[in-house]
């Protein structure tokens, strides 16, 4: 629906001008400084509104603008783009046409994390090709939309366990896994990663895009869950936490074998010494 935006700068009869707006059908008038602001459906006669206000307050100044209808769903989509991240790309469904399915992760955006819009997701995806080997078993902790699980599967992992505690993320993750044709290689579990990871271990790769305080607590469990020669990719850490995390990792017997930084965020590829 189109709308008429009406702005009135009253003269000597402010209350009468406001009453006139209500009389011709306004459902609410906002007082913005010395102006009265309201909206009418686009099929309302703007000149009728103008005449009513001037009859009540002849010295009023009136501005009327037609606001075209906006498809907010389409406007929202304009803010979600394709992200080409080296070997892989993350794209929404409406930008997937013509792309190589083997290199494209198609995600239906329903949340900020997991659409490729966040730097932490992009950091892991850039590090993944150097980590995943064909036939790997992978655990993705805090998997969200399953974007990282899908990436691992497309890079050759034979099986990925996606673990997510947020119930609202699970259906979106399942839809994304099906959409990308990797449902035969990804199992989605709803629950606490600290409980479930030991049950699905051993794995050769752990992915964990979680805040640093949780990562620090989970590092011993991640270490215990890896096969000999296994690796992990950690993300969700702020760049200004890098030195702190390097110390924690060194004290815990980890080597940092790769890094990625974008904006305020830092991601790391790590392996046991």
Overall pLDDT level: 90
Number of domains: 2
**What value does the Rg take, in angstroms?**
27 Å
End-to-end separation: 64 Å
Structural class category: alpha/beta
Q: Would you report the number of β strands?
A: 14
H/E series, N to C?
A: EHEEHEHEEEHEHEHEHEHEHEE
CATH architecture of the largest domain: 3-Layer(aba) Sandwich
Q: Provide the helix percentage.
A: 25-40%
Explain what you see:
The chain is of the alpha/beta class. It folds into two domains: 65 residues, Alpha-Beta Plaits (2-Layer Sandwich), CATH 3.30.70.270; 196 residues, Vaccinia Virus protein VP39 (Rossmann fold). Helices cover 33% and strands 32% of the residues. It has a seven-stranded mixed beta sheet, with helices on both faces. It has a four-stranded antiparallel beta sheet with strand order 2-3-1-4, with helices on one face. β11, α8 and β12 form a beta-alpha-beta unit. α1 runs antiparallel to α2 and α7 packs parallel to α8. The longest helix has 14 residues. The radius of gyration is 27 Å and the shape is elongated. The mean pLDDT is 90.
């Amino acid at each position: 629906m189109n709308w008429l935006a009406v702005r009135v700068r009253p003269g000597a009869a402010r209350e009468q001008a406001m009453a006139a707006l209500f009389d011709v059908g306004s459902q609410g008038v906002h007082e913005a400084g010395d102006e009265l602001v309201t909206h009418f459906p686009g099929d309302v006669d703007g000149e009728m509104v103008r005449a009513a206000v001037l009859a009540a307050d002849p010295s009023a100044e009136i501005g009327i603008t037609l606001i075209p209808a906006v498809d907010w769903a389409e406007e929202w989509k304009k803010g979600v783009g394709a992200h080409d991240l080296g070997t892989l790309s993350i794209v929404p469904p409406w930008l997937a046409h013509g792309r190589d399915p083997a290199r494209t992760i198609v995600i239906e955006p329903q949340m900020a994390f997991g659409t490729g819009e966040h730097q932490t997701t992009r950091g892991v995806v850039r590090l993944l090709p150097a980590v995943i080997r064909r036939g790997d078993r992978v655990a993705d902790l805090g998997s969200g939309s399953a974007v990282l699980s899908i990436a691992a599967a497309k890079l050759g992992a034979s099986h990925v366990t996606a673990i997510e505690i947020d119930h609202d993320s699970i259906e979106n993750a399942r839809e994304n896994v099906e959409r990308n044709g990797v449902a035969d290689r990804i199992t989605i579990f709803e629950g606490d990663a600290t409980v479930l990871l030991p049950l699905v271990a051993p794995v050769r790769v752990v992915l964990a895009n979680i805040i640093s305080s949780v990562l620090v607590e989970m590092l011993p469990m991640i270490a215990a869950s890896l096969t000999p020669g296994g690796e992990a990719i950690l993300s969700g850490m702020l760049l200004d936490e890098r030195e702190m995390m390097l110390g924690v990792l060194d004290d815990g017997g980890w080597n940092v074998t790769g890094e990625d930084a974008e904006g305020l965020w830092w991601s790391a590829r790590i392996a046991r010494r």
